UniProtKB/TrEMBL annotation:
Compartments (UniProt record): Membrane; Plastid, Chloroplast thylakoid membrane
Full protein name: ATP-dependent zinc metalloprotease FtsH
GO BP term, example: PSII associated light-harvesting complex II catabolic process
Keyword ATP-binding listed: yes
Species for this entry: Yamadaella caenomyce
Enzyme Commission numbers on file: 3.4.24.-
SUPFAM superfamilies: FtsH protease domain-like (SSF140990), P-loop containing nucleoside triphosphate hydrolases (SSF52540)
UniProt enzyme class: hydrolase
Main location group: membrane
Length: 629
């Protein structure tokens, strides 16, 4: 580690100051000379005079301007040997010198060394200068850490990462799975490269573009790709960096950021997590934050105020667009909102191909198969999936990633780490019946998602798992599909009831019952799928500042609330009875599947369907085309 003389001086400054005062206050020249002539004992001034009258005093050395004396005395009381005794003399005793001379005592005076001028110079000049120099070094270090060397107290300077040559290293070819968003930004790139083609027909490019989407979908990467494609300067800053504990610092940083951007226009300003500074003002709940609101006001003024910012395009990213201030979203500021959602099948395939370039994959692995098995995964999830597979491959000392590592990585990303295998016994068979109950219902219901595999290997908090492959399009779900999912969730509890009886039902279905109740209630209150009628009885838009799921009150009467509870109960009871009937009718194949599952601990979807097909007919699910590795 490199240590400079500035750091040494800075850290040694307090010790130098303390040492100076100790030296000046304790180690004076008089004290040093006095201590060199050590006295064995002390004597009062009156006793000293008595010794003088008896003739026992032989020599007197005066110190400290005549206030202290070291006396050499010899007498019977002292054992007839010379001893040095210290005597504190009074301030005014003119007759003492006369008595000493009459008694012919050897007197020697020791004047103090006069070094006061040197010490005054050191104390009054050198140490203050040293102290001031240390403070100057401290301020320079603090200023250099805030990005403004040589400028004292530059709290308001922006901490944006400025790249004059657009060294983002990312272009549109490096961003996969967001083709719609890339098409939206093509005209932004064209404007930055050829602005005359737009201004010639009176067109104006949007001043701001807001990227909205779940975490991990590639919003920040997309903003870097825009700067890389347009080859313009790129400013990047997080919304949380604007707000500090000092009043006015956030607004000052906004002004400084846009000032730098104007000097380098055309350019791009990217604000990540803008909800940290751009949330709604004056919510009236829990008080306000004046500093944050001042920062937001300054940002609004800079984006579309009295002074135009030609050639500056502001791109912001957030996953909480519902809490942003309405003034921030109006035309003239963030003119467009681009949704960057989780990728579909083709998007996942493109993302996997990008991240698989630097991975050693086995020739038998199909990237398309992995894409089909990962619905709902974001770009970050897919990158993490292949990275986990590569780590597992290295741990197993293999040369390339195989299907086994891919399967284990998917399970780990979705459900957690693998636990200790279950010991064969009653508990293991009970869990096996529970999981086979889910699998048999999911397989025999036409509208249910197909089964991918059933396993007794614990992961996370689950002691066993049944994996399904959901339909690619989850935006529209029919009533039959919701009822099939309710029955699939009840399959484990129903199998326990049929096989072990009501008295042996376990708590393993607690999470299943929560899902069942939630789906049934949404059917009644949100989707209008009950005898109450096509009514939406619960508002989906909740106040984000009150917390999720906290509503101001019911929007219906107590009579309607009773009807809602009865309809929810009826839906769950009907699905439960149908599930019990399916379990009873297929008890033989269930027992067969449980024996295989206890022995192998995992049954894949194709093997499961093949076994069930030997005992009963399986309805075709044409809307699904699952592929397994």
């Amino acid at each position: 580690m490199k240590v400079s003389w500035k750091n040494i001086l800075l850290w040694s400054l307090p010790f130098l100051v303390i040492g100076f005062f100790l030296w000046q206050g304790l180690l004076t020249p008089n004290t040093a000379d006095l201590n060199s002539n050590v006295a064995n004992s002390r004597m009062t001034y009156g006793r000293f005079l008595e010794y003088l009258d008896m003739g026992w005093i032989k020599r007197v050395d005066l110190y400290d301007n005549g206030h202290t004396a070291i006396v050499e005395a010899l007498g019977p009381e002292l054992g007839n040997r010379v001893q040095k005794i210290r005597v504190e003399l009074p301030a005014s005793a003119p007759e003492l010198i006369t008595k000493l001379r009459k008694a012919q005592i050897d007197i020697d005076a020791h004047p103090s060394k006069n070094n006061s001028a040197l010490f005054n110079l050191i104390g009054n000049l050198f140490f203050p200068l040293l102290f001031i120099g240390g403070l100057a070094i401290l301020f320079r270090r603090s200023n250099s850490n805030t990005g403004g060397p040589g400028q004292a107290m530059s709290f308001g300077k922006s901490k944006a990462l400025f790249q004059m040559e657009a060294k983002t290293g990312v272009v549109f070819n490096d961003v996969a799975g967001v083709d719609e968003a890339k098409e939206e930004f093509q005209e932004v790139v064209t404007f930055l490269k050829e602005p005359d083609s737009f201004t010639a027909v009176g067109a104006k490019i949007p001043k701001g573009v807001l990227l909205v989407g779940p975490p991990g979908t590639g919003k920040t990467l997309l903003a870097k790709a825009i700067a890389g494609e347009a080859n313009v300067p790129f400013f990047s800053i997080s919304g949380s960096e604007f707000v500090e504990m000092f009043v006015g610092v956030g607004a000052s940083r906004v002004r400084d950021l846009f000032k730098k951007a104007k000097e380098n226009a055309p350019c791009i300003i990217f604000i990540d997590e803008i909800d940290a500074v751009g949330r709604q003002r004056g919510t009236g709940i829990g008080g306000g934050n004046d500093e944050r609101e001042q920062t937001l006001n300054q940002l609004l003024t800079e984006m579309d105020g009295f002074e135009g910012n030609t050639g500056i395009i502001v791109i912001a990213a957030t996953n909480r667009a519902d809490i942003l201030d309405s003034a921030l979203l109006r035309p003239g500021r963030f003119d467009r909102q681009v949704n960057v959602d989780v990728p579909d099948l083709n998007g996942r395939l493109a993302i996997l191909e990008v991240h698989a370039k630097n991975k050693k994959m086995d020739s038998n692995i199909s990237i398309k198969t992995i894409a089909r098995r990962t619905p709902g995964f974001s770009g970050a999830d897919l990158a993490n999936l292949l990275n986990e597979a590569a780590i597992l491959t290295a741990r197993r000392r293999k040369d390339a990633i195989t299907t086994s590592e891919i399967d284990a990585s998917i399970d780990r990303v979705v459900a957690g780490m693998e636990g200790t295998p279950l010991v064969n016994g009653k508990s293991k068979r009970l869990i096996a019946y529970h999981e086979v109950g889910h699998a048999i219902i999911g397989t025999l219901l036409k509208d249910h998602d197909p089964v991918q595999k059933v396993t007794l290997i614990p992961r996370g908090q689950a002691r066993g798992l049944t994996w399904f492959i959901p339909n690619e399009d989850q935006s529209l779900i029919s009533r039959k599909q919701i009822e099939a999912r309710i029955m699939g969730a009840l399959g484990g509890r129903a199998a326990e009831e049929i096989v072990f009886g009501n008295t042996e039902v376990t708590t393993g279905a607690s999470n299943d019952l929560q899902q069942v109740t939630s789906m049934a209630r949404q059917m009644v209150t949100r989707f209008g799928m009950s005898n109450i009628g096509p009514l939406s009885l619960e508002n989906e838009d909740s106040n984000p500042f009150l917390g999720r799921g906290m509503n101001s009150g019911n929007e219906y009467s107590d009579e309607v609330a009773i009807k809602i509870d009865k309809q929810v109960q009826n839906i769950v009871n009907q699905c439960h009875q149908q599930t019990l009937s399916i379990i009873e009718e297929n008890r033989v194949v269930i027992d067969k599947l449980v024996d295989i599952l206890v022995e192998k601990e995992t049954i894949e979807g194709q093997e499961l369907e093949a076994i069930i097909a030997d005992y009963t007919d399986i309805p075709s699910k044409k809307e699904y085309s699952p592929q397994f590795g």
